[in-house]
TrEMBL record:
Pfam families: Redoxin
Record InterPro entries: Redoxin, Thioredoxin-like_sf, Thioredoxin_domain
Coiled coil: none
Name of the protein in question: Redoxin family protein
Highest taxon of the lineage: Bacteria
Species assigned in the record: Enterovibrio qingdaonensis
UniProt domain Thioredoxin: residue ranges: 7-166
SUPFAM superfamilies per record: Thioredoxin-like
Length: 179
């Protein structure tokens, strides 16, 4: 049996800094462009058509997320060349970074898969994960899957984040009760 350490809601998000294609560095969980929260979307890689579809769908909600102070960044274990190729299939304006290492995947508590063949990809890759990091660098919302078929519905997620971000609701981080 595989043992994993899932990144818990309410915990500090790890410091993981990765490269973008333009050579700039981005630290996951560090909001940009005036946002106070960040949605970190971990996807399987260019080989995954479901990831491509999900990322393209997420673009339609970028503006609504920005209105509530949340920016988006997407990351995978792909190489620079693999990300370049994948971007030709994407119609998105949020940043992508590449090169998430297996140790970083484990640090985030992601499930890791072995490729079925060289045609799929040339490296172990993480299954999908989504983290919403608040202004304290704390995991506010987490969703980790062991396959590409289980991901949060984007509209439901964005509506929920809108509700959470409304100070009148005083909504705490959920799922933090001790075992």
């Amino acid at each position: 049996m595989v043992k994993t350490n899932k990144l818990a809601a309410g915990s500090e998000f790890p410091t993981i800094t990765l490269n973008a294609l333009d050579g700039s560095l981005h630290t996951l969980g560090s909001p940009r462009e005036g946002a106070t929260w960040q949605m970190v979307v971990i996807y399987r890689g260019r080989h995954c058509p479901m990831c491509t579809r999900y990322l393209n769908q997420l673009e339609a909600f970028k503006e609504k997320l920005a209105e509530i102070g949340i920016d988006i960044i997407a990351a995978s274990g792909d190489s620079n060349a693999q990300l370049e190729e994948h971007l030709t299939k994407l119609d998105v304006s949020f940043p992508f970074v590449y090169g998430v290492s297996e140790s970083q995947m484990k640090e985030m508590g992601l499930y890791i898969s072995i490729p079925r063949s060289e045609q799929e990809t040339d490296h172990h890759f993480s299954e999908p994960g989504m983290f919403v990091i608040n202004e304290q660098g704390t995991v506010q919302v987490v969703d980790i899957s062991n396959n590409p078929f289980v991901r949060p519905d984007i509209e439901t997620l964005v509506n929920g984040l809108t509700w959470i971000r409304n100070p009148d609701n005083n909504y705490p981080i959920r799922g933090t009760a001790p075992y």
